Amino acid sequence: MNKRQTRIFALASTAISALVFLVLTIDSHRQFPELTNADAITPQVTHGKDVWHKYNCINCHTLFGEGAYYAPDLTKITQHRGEAYLKAYMRDPSNFYDEEIHRRLMPKQDLSEEEINDLIIFLDWVANVDNQGWPPRPILVTNSFAQHQPGADVTTDPSVTPVDSGSDPRALGEKLFNTAVPSCNACHSIAPGVTMAGPTMAGLLDRAEQTLASDEYTGEATDVEGYIRESIVSPSAHLVPGSMFSADGVSFMPTTYPESLTEEQIDQLVAYLTSLK
User: Fold this and answer.
1) 171, 198, 218, 275: least buried by Cβ within 10 Å?
2) What is the DSSP letter of 227?
3) pLDDT at 157
4) What does pTM read for this prediction?
5) Are the beta carbons of 223 and 209 closer than 8 angstroms?
6) In sequence order, what are the residues at sequence separation of 6 or more whose Cβ sits closer than 8 angstroms to the Cβ of residue 178?
7) What is the CATH number of domain 146-273?
8) What is the DSSP letter of 144?
9) Which CATH class is domain 37-142?
10) Is residue 104 helix, strand or coil?
């Protein structure tokens, strides 16, 4: 290739690259309104974003992987934590975690109810943005705050019935436990004595039996399987007195599973949970 051919090749390559870049840029901007759920940007979303900046949330948290990485990424937080939980947590985080155990305790910001409400609406808008899988591995809200009770064995409960692979409903339920939206393992551990946003699932069967036998039970279930199903589809049917997992008569458990899971999937999840003796 002589100098003239080299020059032509370089110019043509540059022109083609610039054209491809321009086309991709235009196409990206064409998709932005849909990808970012722009139609859902309300005054409350905008105010929630202002609250996010006002209290410098990004100094500790990240959105879409951008931020301080000191505390969990909140890109999908509303898919992991329900509104009731988030409101109670923002009002006073110290009710949920102990600084001596977790070290990184979120400060009490004294947000107004309007600020809390709009911040959650903003975070819900963020959670519904099509981020196309980015960040690929966000900081999870799962193990960061696992509370190990004194003397607790944090390994998997040896009394848990082994789950076979294949079409066993328990195996399918175990997969759902880890992959449902929101995922159960984002709030619940299966290790004895490990409290997260929800109680540990270890020993669930025994606790369910005790609850059903108690005079304080307010639900409609008549057996353990029914009680576990009720806890999934109607979590506020029975609230454990004095529990940190509810506020103002509302459970922190998400109420979306009846819509996001089929009846068969709920049966599989119940089958798995009843194996956690």
Assistant:
1) 218
2) H
3) 41
4) 0.67
5) no
6) 184, 185
7) 1.10.760.10
8) G
9) mainly alpha
10) coil
